[in-house]
Amino acid sequence: MPDSRKFLHPEAIKRIARLDLRARHIVEGFLSGMHRSPYFGQSIEFRQHREYTFGDDPRYIDWKVWAKQDRYCVKQFEEDTNLRGTLLVDVSGSMRYGRGAMNKYEYACTIAASLGYLLLRQQDAVGCVSFDERVRMTVPLRTRRNHLESVLQALEVSSPREKTDMYPILREITETFPRRGMMMLISDLLSDREGLFRGLKLLRSRGHDVMVFHVLDDDELDFPFGGPTRFDGLESPDIVRCNPRALRDGYLKAMNDFLEEVRRGCTRNNVDYALLRTSQPLDAALAAYLSNRLGMHHKNRG
User: Would you tell me which CATH number, out of the four given (3.40.50.410, 2.30.260.10, 3.90.440.10, 3.40.50.150), belongs to the domain 3-36+81-301?
Assistant: First the structure.
């Protein structure tokens, strides 16, 4: 088995493919619904004009044609059967942290592999970008089932580097994938927040539907350390030796401030946000998130 297949090892793919009955219903219903919901960008493509007739929806009148030709025409569309979903996966050094069954990098890659698997099973188009301080690998949008192998290979990155400003990375992605679709960012977001929010705003301004999966380890969220501890920087050579009990309150406040800043930034830019712990079973986490998102969008449309 190639190394890249570890992100969908047999037990994981069996659970994701089957999920439990309720989770499967939620996930497949959610993905199917994306084809029908105007919230998810362009599920339909412009084809031609025709004369306006009584009963046509006035929202589809092309006013530019009216201004030029003094006649009412409506735009006709055709179904675009493929949703375009692009996985944006952080493979930087900080993602290698973790003391549980999976570190953040492995958890993020498994999220990406699972979403890719589900989308391809629905004959949707899937692309992938892995990045650290720069874009490391880009996989174009394809609908073939065997395309998953290319996605998995893009996630295999050796010698990860630090993350810096996300804005140039997200700007490059908008140029690489100009057609509107769904962008799924999977990262610990430990980078410059101003650049992150500028990048998310740019993706939304180009018509993309954006989902952020914020992956953090329990240690980062709970700071459970007790006695004298040495902390090694994952994206820098810094080493800190300290008594973590003296730092715990200040650290947790800083972490909560960070999480609140990220949530507010995503809300401000109309980006869906989910915080995922690496200790959470992945199928349950995905199902709960998608169920919540589906419920919110039904409420918004209702």
Answer: 3.40.50.410
